[in-house]
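DUF4386 family protein
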Amino acid sequence: MIAAGVFLVAVPIAFNVAFARLAATFDYPDVLHHPTHEVLAKFTAGGRALVLTWWAFAMTALLMVPLVVLTSDAYDATALTTTVGVLAAAVQLLGLIRWPFLVPYLAEHAGDPATDIH
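Predicted structure tokens:
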């Protein structure tokens, strides 16, 4: 139960630290309301540090898996709560992982006329 307590403290802290860093360096989540070319330019300007911050943010989703498993025995519906918790972590990870994987590629090729689809 000590491990569960550690995760219950550490996971939200890690999530909020990564989120705050993205807010400070990338204007996240407000940047999502900007035109695509502005988002990609800002992403490129953020460099490797921004990609690593997105990685850290995405990894907080993975940290939800052991958190869910460690705390799931506290409820009567163990199988259901574990399944929902793991699925929530997977969906969060899939939503965030595009930033360190796909967006660098898009940002790199955004100004290339050979890849322009317009």
